[in-house]
Write a structure and sequence with these properties.
Layout: H1 3-11, H2 19-25, H3 36-49, E1 53-57, E2 63-66, H4 68-73, H5 86-89, E3 90-92, H6 105-110, E4 115-122, E5 135-144, E6 150-159, H7 161-175, H8 185-202, E7 206-214, H9 216-223, H10 225-243, E8 248-253, E9 256-262, H11 267-281, E10 285-287, E11 290-292, E12 295-303, H12 310-326, E13 332-334, H13 342-358, E14 362-371, E15 376-388, E16 392-394, H14 396-405, H15 409-424, E17 432-436, H16 439-442, H17 447-458, E18 465-469, H18 478-491, E19 494-500, H19 506-512, E20 517-520, H20 522-526, H21 535-548, E21 552-556, H22 561-569, E22 574-576, E23 584-585, H23 586-592, E24 613-623, E25 626-635, E26 639-643, E27 645-646, E28 653-659, E29 662-672, E30 675-680, E31 685-686, E32 692-693, H24 700-706, E33 716-717, E34 734-735
Helix pairs in contact: 9-10, 10-11, 15-17, 17-18
Length: 741
């Protein structure tokens, strides 16, 4: 008999039932409260029906009663449940989708609160069935005796496993990307909001990385959307391996991804992570027996420095991502206030570049490649230069990415190729010319014809033309790439792989592409003489590999004799760098060849020092608790030259206020009149845009506590770390009053 049948039977009797029924149930068929036997029978029927169960606990929180059918549902003998603390058997579900997270069951019971439809999970490991999870909805109320003493809980429960699993799946679908399994935009927005809200109160930092894939559309167009989906899954897997448990990763849609990194604001570590992400994502993908190559760019914004609210961080990382893509793709950028007008700046620069091509404002300079054994020049690399009539010189790092994005690169590249071939006809026949080829230009189906036409128009011998390529040329259709290589080699031109060693997949390219030369990237040369660096070993390995494959090797960026001697000892036979010559104008290069021989003796400093960037901007110099205005004239990763202070002794400890919360602790290493040189306690790191920045910044919370941003403080005493009432020091240096930035 079921509960439903009992009540249906009761409802059908209005005092006109049979005598036996009336006798057993009383007048009108109603079961009285005094009829304990019939009441107990109803309770048994209710429990057996599976509609719900009854439970009870004692004053110590132990389970003293539970329906037998409930124990069967849990696949547990009653003795394994009774007598045990309820809180040891069940726990509040750690993830309650769509609801506020409830307080733990332990707290609810200890507080003797009334419990209403609380979702709990049978503690994992208690069930005999491995992997099984059971969810119950329990209700209960505390029971007290006449003296107000707590007697325990009396309650009910029901199994909601099926409904709850459906709820979990619906929640998962609502918050996770169905293709990659990563969090979706909705969940990432919620997580970022939660982090920023909590961290604002705790004065902690949180970084947001925004990235999208370069050339993903080409994969979709070439191989089809199923291949694109397969690639996105692999990208998600690679991101998960690289980021690990340091952060949360989401796919926002299409080829856009986002990474939240709590408690990480070290821009050195963030730059390293972004670089690793770029390198790992750029590795070839195997999809349906085809090879696909893409890339990525990364924009980075950090709370609280770049904003305290979600929208601030989203906007900042978006602007930084745009700057990274506009800077040539395959790069990262940190957000800065300078990025606000970059889109408009790029548009204006594109218009000016079009005019420059029409008005012949561009020219080629040539940097010699020199044979080390006799210092003879064997080749010259053509480097594009643009002298803007109003802006002055504009770096190729600025205008080449704009040319690639606007499709001006083909026109620009064809001009450079033809001009370089024409110039080379005026040199000795033993001297080659090298021309850089953009990946966008290389991917153009008509590129081999452009090379053919340039050689035919100028009469330059094909073996005197060297085309310098980077690994990015392999990011297109593999069949088109192979055809282009085959056509170029049939012309007789030479091919060089530039920036070798900076990518992860160079060896596979050497196996499939007919290169004649490898160029060791300057980044290895910059650090080859530093301790605890493997750069010297890497240079030796590249030279050995090149020799084994019958290729030449050119080592780029050699500037000082300690570098020169080291790379020569590792087997370098060709060098390109300032130790021989900076890039020369065409007329200067021709003038040095008039004797019929082009020989250059190496000349430079004995030791390499970190590259110093010349600049002219105002900074603050803090000594003890006094702040001075000064001019920053040179800046490198390890030190700086500053003008505007007189009487600063060598070995004086200072703090440079570089603005935007950047404080650099340093020591004076040289002082002459109003100029001092300082060495940083902690080296600066790259900002991703060719500049330098401090690893850490002073939190805006600390700046607010000081009263205002450091860079905004007026000249005079500044109590950087003084307590109220503490005496301030007397200025020890003289500030030159007429400095101006």
């Amino acid at each position: 008999m079921t509960v439903k049948s009992i009540f249906r039977g009761l409802a059908g009797r209005n005092g006109a039932g049979d005598a036996a029924g009336d006798t057993a149930a009383g007048a009108n068929g109603v079961i009285s409260h005094a009829d304990a036997a019939r009441r107990l029978a109803i309770l048994d029927d209710f429990e057996q029906a599976g509609i719900g169960w009854i439970w009870a606990g004692d004053s110590e929180g132990r389970l003293i009663y539970i329906s037998e059918s409930a124990a069967q549902k849990l696949d547990q003998p009653l003795e394994a449940l009774l007598g045990h603390p309820l809180a040891a058997l069940f726990e509040t579900d750690p993830y309650n989708p769509g609801e506020r997270s409830d307080r733990p069951l332990t707290f609810q019971l200890s507080a003797r609160n009334k419990i209403t439809d609380l979702t709990v999970r049978f503690v994992p490991g208690k069930s005999k069935q491995e992997g099984r999870q059971t969810w119950w909805s329990i209700s209960g109320h505390p029971k007290f005796d006449a003296n107000g003493d707590f007697q325990g809980y009396r309650g009910s429960a029901k199994d909601i496993t099926v409904e709850y699993e459906r709820k979990l799946e619906d929640s998962r679908l609502a918050e996770f990307d169905s293709l990659t399994g990563l969090a979706n935009r909705h969940r990432m927005n919620k997580r970022l909001e939660a982090y920023l809200t909590a961290y604002k109160a705790a004065k902690r930092s949180c970084t947001l990385m925004m990235l999208d894939l370069d050339r993903f559309k080409q994969v979709n167009d070439t191989f089809g959307h199923p291949a694109g989906d397969a690639l996105l899954k692999q990208v998600a897997e690679r991101l998960t391996r690289v980021v690990g448990d340091r952060g949360e990763i989401g796919r926002l849609g299409g080829d856009e991804f986002q990474i939240i990194l709590p408690d990480l604001d070290d821009r050195g570590k963030l730059g390293e992570l972004a670089t690793k992400i770029i390198q790992i994502i750029s590795l070839p993908y195997a999809i349906d027996n085809e090879r696909a190559v893409i890339g990525t760019s990364v924009g980075i914004a950090i709370a609280p420095y770049d904003g305290l609210e979600k929208d601030d961080l989203l906007r900042g990382s978006d602007l930084a991502l745009y700057a990274a893509k506009n800077g040539g793709r395959g790069q990262f950028r940190f957000y800065s206030t300078d990025l606000k007008d970059e889109a408009e700046e790029a548009r204006l620069l594109e218009d000016d570049l079009r005019e420059a091509l029409v008005n012949d404002q561009l020219e080629l300079h040539y940097q010699p490649v020199v044979r080390t054994k006799d210092h003879m020049v064997v080749g010259l690399e053509a480097l594009m230069r643009w002298e803007h009539p109003e802006r002055g010189p504009i770096s190729p790092g600025q205008f080449i990415p704009i040319a690639e994005k606007s499709n001006l690169i083909n026109q620009l590249g064809e001009w450079a190729l033809r001009r370089a071939c024409q110039d080379a006809t005026q040199w000795p026949e033993t001297v080659r010319v090298a021309v850089n080829v953009s990946a966008v230009q290389f991917a153009t189906s008509g590129f081999p014809a452009i090379v053919t036409n340039a050689l035919a128009a100028t009469g330059l011998a094909p073996d005197r033309l060297e085309l310098e390529l980077t690994e990015s040329v392999f990011m297109g259709d593999s069949e088109v790439i192979d055809d282009t290589f085959r056509l170029l080699k049939s012309l007789g031109v030479r091919l060089a792989l530039d920036d070798f060693g900076t990518g992860y997949s160079s060896l596979s390219y050497l196996r499939s592409a007919p290169f004649d030369k490898l160029k060791v990237d300057k980044s290895f040369v910059d650090s080859c003489t530093q301790k605890d660096q493997n750069s010297a070993k890497i240079i030796a390995a590249i030279i050995g590999l090149s020799d084994a494959l019958g290729m030449e090797t050119t080592v780029e960026g050699v500037e000082a004799f300690d570098q020169f001697n080291l790379v020569c000892s590792k087997g370098a036979r060709f060098i390109q760098g300032y130790i021989y010559s900076k890039p020369l104008r065409m007329e200067d290069a021709v003038a040095r060849m008039e004797s019929g021989e082009f020989r250059i003796e190496p000349e430079g400093p004995d030791r390499h020092r970190s590259e110093r960037r010349s600049m002219f901007r105002r900074i603050g110099v803090i000594h003890i608790d006094h702040r001075y205005d000064a001019l920053l004239r040179d800046l490198s990763t390890t030190g700086a030259r500053i003008e505007g202070l007189i009487g600063v002794p060598v070995d004086t400890g200072l703090v440079l206020d570089l603005g935007a919360g950047q404080l650099a602790v340093c020591t004076v290493t040289r002082a002459t009149e109003a100029s001092i040189a300082v060495e940083f306690e902690t080296p600066l790191v790259t900002d991703g845009a060719g500049g330098l920045c401090t690893r850490h910044r002073v939190s805006p919370y600390a700046l607010a506590a000081a009263g205002m941003p450091l860079a905004a403080l007026p000249a005079g005493n500044y109590p950087l770390a003084t307590n109220a009432g503490e005496s301030r020091s007397t200025p020890q240096f003289t500030q030159v009053s007429n400095i101006a930035a």
